[in-house]
Each structure stands twice: as C-alpha cells, then as structure tokens.
Amino acid sequence: MKKIVSILFIILNIVAVALLLLSTISGIVPPSKSAYISLLSYGYFYFLLLNLLFILVWLFFRRKEFLISLIAILLRYSFIPLHFQLGGAQDLADADSSDKDTATVVRLMTFNTHGFHGVDDSLVADSGALHFVKIVRENQPDVMCLQEFFSPAKVRVIDSLERMGYNHHHNVGKGTMGSVIFSKLPFDYVGEAGSSTKFFVDVAKDSKTFRLFCVHLTSYQMVGSDAEALERLTHGTVDSAMELTAKKLVHTQRMHETEWNEMLLSKIKESPYPVVVAGDFNDPPSSYLYQKTRKVLKDSFVEQGSGIGTTYHGPFPAFRIDYVLHSDTIKALTYKRVKSDVSDHYPVIVDLML
After folding, report:
1. Distance between CA 352 and CA 107 in Å, rounded?
2. pTM greater than the 0.85 cutoff
3. Chain centre distance of CA 88
4. Would you say residue 76 has pLDDT above 70?
5. Which of 97, 181, 226, 307 has its CA 20 to 30 A from that of 59?
C-alpha cells in the first residue's frame, strides 16, 4: 500500500513539474499558436508554491525525490525575481544611488482607478475619489498614468488635482476619459499608439525629455459568472460556463499579442527619447506580453521591488499586472505599492532617475 501511495505521489509531483515548466514558455509560444499554454502563465507562482510543497514533503520523509521539483525550479529560476523581490527601496532616502540628490528624478504613479468604486464595486465613487486625492497629496508624484478614470466624480478630482499643480493632462478618448495622464511637468508632444487606451506624451524636466506611454491593454471583461466557473474548475469541474470563460481568456490573450506586435513595439522603437511604459497590462510576469516587453525595457519592480508585488486584488486571484517599464538609460530608484481599497488595483509609485 505504501508503495502505491508513493508512486501516486511521484506522478502528482511530475504533473506539478510539468505545469510549472509549461507556465514559463509563454515567451516562446505566442497566444496565436497556443493561447492555452499562454494562459498557464497565470499559474506560475501557484505552481511554484505547489512544487515547494512537494520538496518539503519529500524532505520530511527523507526521500531523494525532492530533486524532481528542485531541479525544475532551478531550471526556470529566472522567473522567481519577476514575482518576488527582497531589499528594494520604497523611499528616496533609502535609495542606493550616490548621485540621486543631483540627478533629474521623476516620480511617476500608475493606477487603474476602477472608477473609484472599490475592490468589489461597493464603494461610493465620491468617497473613493477623496481617498485617491489623499494618496496623491501624500505621495506627490510628478506624473500620473490613470486607467478607467470614468467616475462621475472625475470633475471634482480634476479640480483637486489642478489645485495641487497638475495643470497638464491628456487623453485620447472623448468624454469619458478612460485613460489619462496628469502631470506637473509640461508636455512637448502627444501621440497615439493604436487606440484611446494606448497613447504617449513627451515629458520634459531639467532640460531632459522622456517619452511616457500610458497603456491599458484589453481587459478580460470577467464577471461574476466567470469567477464562479473558475472556482468550479479549481474543484475539478469543467462545464459549459467554463468553456465560455476559456474562450474569453483565449481571445484576450491573442488581443494582447496583437496590441504589442502591431501597436506598441514600433512606437517604442521609433522614440527619439528614452521610454517609460506605465499602466495596466492585464497580464502577469510569466506571460507572452511581459516576456516580449522585457526584451526591450527594464522592469522597475525587478530593480527596486520588495515582497510579492501583486497589483490586482479584486475578486479573481491576485497577480502583478500593473507595470512601470523603462529604457536602459533610465534607472529606478524606488518602487512602492500603495495599499488601498479605492480600486481593485493598487497604485504603483516609482522614482525614476533620468
């Protein structure tokens, strides 16, 4: 009996290893070739924890089979820093840079405000907007990239921001202002990158200019029924509702591939200035989209993050899907994730040295 249990446990361990490895090849296999492999990227961190559990169990029983998961983890070790970091700086006073006091530093915030309706849409927009203005006042970013900025309270928010010196703002869409950049610094140029949720401005400070892209990639448009379907999937139940959810996920993954390859990449490469890309990517660090961006841009979380950097904390599993990415010639001095219930996302604030 013990031998049968041991064999079954080894089989389960091998399955866990296979899932871990498959979740790391999204950068190789684009969604247009296999969206389901790409979707496994969402499970990397959880597959990692599962394999660590297998290691602990095998070590407890003093079995050499712990090497099965250990070798798999080591083979794809480079993915761990994308999800977990130690020792980063959250404040400029703690930043490890000798020339930070004399260099040109820009403080940038990216935040999907979710209309200021809170984590589960239960927050009154006016109340959420007041909390947001307080976050801005306490942190004083120079520039903000905001997504889903369509609350009825936006007029009062704009008035408050202008009183704090954010006299420059730009958005492509009309009326709703779904994505918008607010800045204390002037804009030299504005342009589109394919849609009203992807645009850029040239920002100048101390005679130095960088091109800032504000992006909000296609949302998965998940609703309560999708959450219920995913919950049933975790219990091993696959039904017609899950199939509809899967189709929605697959479509969005393929949209992200198109948005990157046909809209963003060329605009980034054409920039005459160093580039910062900030916003809601709706994809985790193991995804095809992120792996492609990392070939041309650096990740401020990898440079200065601390802990598990989840930025989404809504009704679905938590992931890091909001980013501040930048050119090699720019250095991240700090990275801070602000805990707040204003939205189902957390604001991310980064100090960038030009």
Report:
1. 6
2. yes
3. 17
4. yes
5. 307
